[in-house]
Amino acid sequence: MNGKIYIIGTGPGAIEYMCQRAINAIAASEVIVGYKTYTKQIESLIEGKELLSSGMRQEVERCRQVIDIALSGKTVSMISSGDAGIYGMAGVILEMLATDQIEVEVEVVPGITSAISSASLVGAPLMNDFAVISLSDLMTPWEVIIKRIECAAVGDFAIALYNPKSRERIKQIEIFRDILLKHRSGETPVAIVRDAMREGCETELCTLSDMLEKEIDMTTTLIVGNSQTYVAQGRMITPRGYKL
Question: Which among 142, 209, 205 is positioned nearest to 181, based on CA atoms?
């Protein structure tokens, strides 16, 4: 008899920001699999369990591990940071199961993704329609990313920006900013959130014009407002449209 797979989003990293279902799923699991940085963040929850952790760029191997463990009859949890279904491991595992036509019980347990945690730290910048875009072109061609940026800019979406800049990837965020400046004011508010809800968390409000002067790296999430977004009392606000 096959086991069960939990694909768990642990949110920003601190246990206090995990949903109770995620905590229960980990408790019900015999084996925990995940990127070592993420499993370390919840080590108090996984004491006494079999732990299989590995480094970056081993996502596909980890997913195959999880499926093999479930087929052996065990209950296993795959750990993702944020939400497992948003740039996480849920899609990879489900694709593998569908491709290989493997029938096994799966539950995707949601977590707080960085767009949501970052937004809460700076006000209410995502109160109306918004887009989430990653500037990483490891999985998505850069030409496709550019098209998505342009569409979000034309549509006047607030934008939560993931993976904005790395040591090797510097020009992409400049191109992102230049595309947006064609469609909205340089005074458009921008929130820069580093390590949202983790140790060392920092937030800063700036504008579209001066955002590139700020410290931005791979642990940073940016939130760019739409044409209606403003800053008041130190908080970034995008109106929903209520008559006040």
Answer: 209
Q: Catalogue all structural domains in the chain, each as residue range(s) with its CATH number.
A: 4-112 (3.40.1010.10), 115-237 (3.30.950.10)
Closest to 158 in 3D by CA, of 193, 133, 192? 133
29-67: pLDDT as tens digits:
999 999 999 999 999 999 999 999 887 778 999 999 999
pTM of the model: 0.93
CA distance 97 to 190: 40
**Largest separation between any pair of C-alpha atoms in the chain:** 60
- Residue that is written with structure tokens 């008041």 in the block: 232
Gap between the Cα atoms of 26 and 2, Å rounded: 18
Residue 173 CA to chain centroid, in angstroms?
A: 18
Pairing, β 158-162 against β 220-224 = antiparallel
User: Structure tokens of 124?
Assistant: 């209410």
Q: Quick: pLDDT tens for 124-142.
A: 999 999 999 999 999 999 9
Task: Look at the block and give the residue holding tokens 């979406």.
Answer: 157
